[in-house]
Input
Amino acid sequence: MVHGLERMVVRHTLRLPVPARAAAAATGDGAADRAGAAERAGTTDAAGTVAARQFDAALLSVGFTLSTALLAELSARPPETVVALAARALDTVREMVGDHVRHNAYFVDFPANVPATHDFWAACVAEALSDPRTHATTAAQLRAGEVDLLTLPAYGTYRHTYEEMLAAHDELIAGAGDRLTVLHLGGTADEEAAALYITLAGSTTPLGAERLQDLAVLAEHCADAPQPAAIPVRENRAVVNRARLAVGADLLLDTVTDVLRLACALSDGDVSLREPTRLRGMSRPVRRALLAGLDAVVAASPAKLADVRAHREAWKRLGERLHPHEYPHRPHAADVFAVARGEKDAPSLDSLVEEHLGRGDVTGAAELLTAAPGRLFRALDRLLRTADGPGERESVLAAAARVAPQVAGRVLLSLREHLLNRTGEGERRRVFVSGSGGAWVAADTRPPLPESVRERLTALLDDETRRRLPAPGHLLVDPAVLDVALPLGGRATAAGLGVLPRGSVSPVEGDLLRFFTYWKEARHTTDHDLSALVLDASLATVGWLSYTALTAVEGTHSGDVTEAPDGASEFIDLRLGAVRGTFVVPQVNVFSGEGFDEVEESFFGYMLRDAEQAGRPFEPRTVRMKSDLRGPGRVALPLAFQRDADGRWHARWLHLYLRGRPSSNRVEENRVSVAVLLGALLARTPLTVRHLVGLMAESATTSSLRDGAADPWEAGRAPEGPVTYIGLERPAGLPPGTRVLTPENLRDLVPA
Output
């Protein structure tokens, strides 16, 4: 368990948990006493120093390094301790960059000697004709005028071993631009796990699927440890309640839906309630606890029965598991299931609001919604654009102002982002993104909001956000983080290394851009295809690289692999200077077999390197980003690359999945839908870190950008006390007590 916690802490925080030093006085052993005295005196053990430096060298091979403090701490430890820590940490960071698997390329010399597509296909046909076992079948296909590539022995499966591929490549030449990610010194595994638990459980924004799974593990481990002051996100509360139920602690329930989410958590289902959960049978103690919680919630506030109708079918299924008729002393719990069955009336708030709106009573609808401030703020656009004249709009704004302090910070900021994109300028299109990353585009037929109303509501949101932000003291910001989008939703960021939230923009520097994807099938033969679509400034197709276009002006494709029982990789090399278009959109298509949610493993990433670096197709030191592919669609769009007017390239983060076809998805066939979706996304303005930094700077003691010579550390003007640092990476030399916000914990920037 401890080792699993170590791995989790490293993935989430880039901090390496280190065991506590043994207390010499408690050992009674002379050698141990002397070792403890040496450690307390700050002396270093020579063997420990050697082991620590060997650990650091091994980390460098995958693009990581030990911080100065961590290297010094490990140097003072026994070598066997360092070696054990190193083995586990190396496994973890290798998996973080995708180096835990063998990345073979179909063409052994890739990116050199990749043939033209039709020449390659002709060679595969010629080989099949020369083989007596496939001659007749191939000849018949040729006579019919159509050859199935998958029937050709030379197509789709590796023709060489991984070792033979390695032998065909020179060593990677180290480059100044290679990624170097710092591992920092942590406390003990239990201390770090407890801190991570508090952070995840108390998150003000929903967590993605991987982080929610990690929270479940941490909640169980920390069930008897200190708990967060508040758990504002309902999905997080359900996961924590499952752990509390297991140890007999009081459940955190204030709505009936909290009980339904807990039941889904107990069945390892979807606590967000977006997808139906097959509820399992429950033991009598669990049934008693859930019914008692449900009874207490309704007894305290019978109006909360109105929430049942939103998930009536799920409540019916839960009633079959809980047997409420066996507990006549829980009448309020029984009312919940009576409402679900339609035997008891409990009008929902939404239905009452619709009645008011049907009568044209916008003021009355707004007053009703003040009982649910979050819903009021989500409905403000509709209320304001349907209000009859300035008087009714004024009453809606007044209602919003009264309840604004009760609205979650992420709801305030989501509405602020919405208003950024409600200007009514140009051709208006709406982009809808589901919680699982599905996306579609529709024309925006809503009438625009009056500009005066938009400005007043914007000011209200900014004032309320400003009030909640903590005083940052000395504020130090890395300019590279300013265009990172605020993570306001759980699926806005995929799990992985170097991944930024959807809508973020980050610079891309290097001569060669290399995409990679890896998948390993679970039960069925599976073919995932890596492709890259090149578009011009108007989003018209310039060309593409895929298994149907192995070579182009822009670069080369590593070749099509059509099955992955032991895992398979595909690569695309792009020479950025040779790209003819403005946009490059990498995508992974499910051609056949298991989807992204079904395979044993699937991920995507990109590398940057200089032209002279050479090396293997996959070099972990050059990996800039690696993210898991886990979505419901058949076409994955992790990000897009855009060249600006000055010729500089930037990544635009998408984290989207298109539905695609059940099989045979190809870049040629989805290029129109990709262009339409990209165009709509480019027209949107995300709310970024820049917005909150601007508000924080107003109350900061001092604020500065960490930018070259302006960097206080480099210019000798570092503040003496703690600072609030916001950046893409944690720099060395920060004063003790500094609050550090990087992509790993950027969600903490969103106020509660």
Remarks:
- Confidence is low (pLDDT under 50) at residues 24-44.
